[in-house]
Amino acid sequence: MSYPYQITSFEQYQADYQKSVEDPEGFWGNVAENFEWRKKWDKVLEWNFTEPRIEWFKGAKLNITENCIDRHLSTMADKPAIIWEPNNPEERVRVVTYQRLHKRVCQVAQMLTNNGVKKGDRVCIYMGMVPELAYAVLGCARIGAIHSVVFGGFSAQSIADRLYDAQAAFIITCDGAYRGDKVIPLKSVIDDALIGNRTIKKVIVYTRTRTPVSMIKGRDIWWEDEMEHAEHQIEKDGKVSFPAAEMDAEDPLFILYTSGSTGKPKGVVHSTAGYMLWTNYTFVNVFQYKPGDIHFCTADIGWITGHSYIVYGPLSAGATSLMFEGIPTWPDAGRFWDIVEKHKVNCLYTAPTAIRSLMSFGTNPIQGKDLSSLKVIGTVGEPINEEAWHWYDENIGKKRCPIVDTWWQTETGACLISNLAGVTPAIPSWASLPMPGVQPILVDENGNENTTADEHGIIKGNLCIKAPWPGILRTTYGDHERCRTNYFDTYPGLYFTGDGALKDAKGNYRITGRVDDVLNISGHRIGTAEVENAINMHSGVVESAVVGYPHDIKGQGIYAFVIYNGHHNEESLTRQDINLTVSKIIGPIAKPDKIQFVTGLPKTRSGKIMRRILRKIAEGETVNLGDTTTLLDPAVVEEIKNGRV
Ligand code: WTA
């Protein structure tokens, strides 16, 4: 496969950027010519950010799986599409060629159809990182069902909320998932999530860990049995086929839930054609993918990074995507480097939190590992501190691999701001330049563009985007108004990212972190309100306030101030009880790192918690807390300061 739209020089980047902004329809219309369409579009772009309404390639018909699989079969049927590295390095690697992937995806499509799944139905997928997860996602897309993958670390309650919000009728899960030396009993979590559920008709269970499961008659069925049955149906005259559903460009492809500043996660909806173009275009350009390269994105498919850079981006580009079931520190902290050596990985894409965690083991786990196959290394999910950037550069990239620092969000579908490997300059801890089609703007509290630079030529502000790129979210599931108020209302006419940023005189951006009440814990987004709601569910808790604080490995840690009035006052046990409550309500990823018991919270006379003060205390600041005179009870601040944990 060739990529005529791959940018190969800085001058070309500048020219393409210019074109994409001056004539977005001409620019993206050209890029779109490189995909398979059942019918071409009537109009490349129609939009307004007021409703918001964003339509790319209106009138076009396609199926994304034909772009990710079928179109590659004539030239690269035997090329690996997915290389699967199991949790346990002793277990056999699985290499899934495009031919095999085609068959498996057709089988899943047939299996889903046999079980009554139709175009537009919502299918929840709660699985570990096995190839079957990729088959499940693509099988849904083949028949036009909307997949909603839920990360394996979310609790039964979180799944139940998502099932309800999406009105999902089907679930695909595993008996269990391996994570290092642990087995996570996924099906049993699903069973808990389904207590009282009225919408789910079928649960398909793939066997991975042989963890005992309860299978409810009429509802729960085995993946293996269903797939075997489907296999006979899709094979005719020695050929495999399952006709892909014809989808509109703007038909929803998937829902992915993510946290915002309100208490409830929202279902971000991505479209078919725009998302496909955007993941493909950014994959090919940011990583400078060359046919034959092996791309290793270490994310879980339960997050947007896995959707875009394990599944849709690489496969639509006919690439080889390495999928890893395990964790970076098991059996030891050399696991990533073993994988790079074993599979001759060319591009490694991971999170700053993983880099910092591996850094803490020193360089011994890297000794003797052959990392010479690496050409490009990348990061995503949170700001990367300079120390981690240099460690990555020196020890992993050996100063010969460009580092791409890719800034983006669940809502943006794929990268918006990033250097292009080896083509545009890499600057430590700066995401750098916008992708073609992306028009960032920094605004003040009132939405006015900030244009005044400080003495170093740096402009600060809240990061917004002026116009739509193909991969922008289209709505939040079941509640379009929520999409409007969350992203398009703070600064009318602009998409607001929720992030703060700096811009230098050359137009490079540095992302400084969230400016709303969203935390970024090990690259995972969690709303403070969500964690507070969960803590407040504990019977002894009167009230709580949650803020983030700098954490060496996780980037940010969760600090909870809790007013407790329970029956026993043994603090350590109460802390464990609160942690367990949060695990049950959200999942272990949202457990507070620190819990401080307080008798009151700093509130204004109107009853608003002054988080600014709590944030400073959590960060260790005890002197300059700013103005506290508007507080109802300034004395409480002294108490909180003295009781810091
Ligand atoms: C943060 C992950 C700095 C940011 C793809 C954003 C980053 C949030 C970077 C989205 C980066 C992501 N530098 N910050 N390179 N990448 N972020 O939705 O705060 O899980 O708003 O998407 O992660 O997180 P999400």
- Determine the strand fraction and express it as a percent band: 15-25%
* The CATH homology group name of the largest domain: ANL, N-terminal domain
Strand order of the largest sheet: 5-4-19-18-20-21-22
The second-level CATH architecture of the largest domain is: 3-Layer(aba) Sandwich
Shape: globular
Report the count of strand segments.
Answer: 32
Instruction: Tally the structural domains.
Output: 2
The whole-angstrom Rg is 24 Å
The averaged pLDDT comes out at 96
Give the CATH level 1 class of the largest domain.
Alpha Beta
- Contiguous low-pLDDT stretches (5 residues minimum) are none
Helical residue percent?
25-40%
The distinct bound ligands, ions and cofactors come out as: 5'-O-[(S)-ethoxy(hydroxy)phosphoryl]adenosine
Describe what you observe in this structure.
- The protein has 2 domains: 10-497, Rossmann fold (3-Layer(aba) Sandwich); 517-642, ANL, C-terminal domain (GMP Synthetase, Chain A, domain 3, 2-Layer Sandwich).
- A 7-stranded mixed β-sheet has the order 5-4-19-18-20-21-22, with helices on both faces.
- The chain has 645 residues and is an alpha/beta fold.
- It is built from 19 helices and 32 strands.
- 5'-O-[(S)-ethoxy(hydroxy)phosphoryl]adenosine is lined by residues 258, 303-305, 380-383, 405-410, 431, 497-499, 511, 513-514, 520, 525.
- Residues 258, 303-305, 380-383, 405-410, 431, 497-499, 511, 513-514, 520, 525 line the site of 5'-O-[(S)-ethoxy(hydroxy)phosphoryl]adenosine.
Give the topology, please.
Blueprint lengths: L9 H13 L1 H9 L10 E6 L4 E6 L2 E2 L1 H5 L4 H4 L3 E6 L8 E4 H17 L7 E5 L4 H13 L2 E4 L6 H11 L3 E5 L2 E3 L2 E3 L1 H8 L8 E5 L13 E3 H12 E2 L2 E2 L6 E2 L3 E7 L7 E6 L1 H14 L7 E4 L6 H13 L3 E5 L10 H9 L3 E4 L1 H8 L16 E5 L5 H11 L6 E4 L33 E4 L15 E7 L9 E2 L3 H9 L6 E9 L5 E6 L3 E4 L2 E4 H9 L4 E11 L3 E10 L6 H15 L8 E4 L13 H9 L15 H8 L3
Parallel strand pairs: 4-19, 6-7, 6-8, 8-11, 11-12, 18-19, 18-20, 20-21, 21-22, 31-32
Antiparallel strand pairs: 1-2, 3-15, 4-5, 9-10, 13-14, 16-17, 17-25, 23-24, 24-26, 26-27, 28-29, 30-31
The structure holds 5'-O-[(S)-ethoxy(hydroxy)phosphoryl]adenosine.
5'-O-[(S)-ethoxy(hydroxy)phosphoryl]adenosine binds next to helix 11, strand 22, strand 26 and strand 27.
